[in-house]
Prior knowledge:
This protein is of the alpha+beta class and 171 residues long.
Amino acid sequence: SEENMGHYGLAKKEYTHFTSPIRRYPDLAVHRILKKVLRQERAKIPALSSIALHCSQEERNAEGAEKELMEWRIYRFLKGKLGDEFEGIIVDITKAGLVVELENYFVDGIVSYSDLGGDYYFKRSEKTLIGRRTGRKYELGDRLKVALVSVDPILRRIGLTLSSERKEETR
Length: 171
């Protein structure tokens, strides 16, 4: 941004930062402005606002692409781990099933209701899945041991099932 917003953490009204100008165009712009200020010249760059906006958008695009690449690599890696068991945490409960984030991999997979067996019902208001007969509850934040049954790196989908020992507890 061309607007000086200061630095909240340092309690400074004026603030700028930069790294090597060879790495990021916004840093090159800051260097050019500082050079003009030090020479006591007019430090205005006519298109600074559009340059700042463009650079911010491109940085967000690059971060998004990097995130997508990392996810794709994780999915490709996991494709070679079919049948393996992982620790996970329930991060959502949807109509499709339990959404479980695999620990250490930061990707989600689905345990479908049909894989749970039993007679579960979804209590939407509490985001809880409850077994009518067993009383077994699945809630957000519950830790589960799951087995990897399918991976699609293109669609970014992971299919999970409860580990063998866990399935016995739910029936």
